[in-house]
Amino acid sequence: MKLIVQIGDTLIPLSQCFWVRANPAGCVYSSSHGDTAINPAEAHKDFTPRQRDRDRELKDGWTIRLVTREQWNEQAAPCIKGDCEHRKQAAA
Fold it and tell me: What is the pTM (predicted TM-score) of this model?
């Protein structure tokens, strides 16, 4: 059975999406294939196994969201590679 999700106005199979974990500034630190979890809470468990760490991240403004491959290429890939504006600004 193929799960379909809606991101914006687009319906897409979950297996073609990615979960991303981003800090409060929007810099992506973790990524996994969409079919590894069925909701943000489950994806967060994969990224951050300990409950107290997940609670702290959420309190501090970290986010877990589902993105399309195009969004991943634009928003997550530069962060994962260390080429994003977030890290350039932090280093300045």
Answer: 0.90
3-state secondary structure of 27: coil
Between CA 47 and CA 66 the distance in angstroms is: 13
What percent of the chain is modeled with pLDDT above 90? 83
For residue 42, which of 75, 64, 12 has the smallest C-alpha distance?
64
pLDDT number for residue 86: 79
Residue 2: per-residue pLDDT = 84
DSSP 3-state of 14: helix
Compute the residue count for the chain: 92
Bridge partners, residue 20, by sequence: 31, 65
Instruction: Please count the other Cβ atoms lying within 10 Å of the Cβ belonging to residue 14.
Output: 17
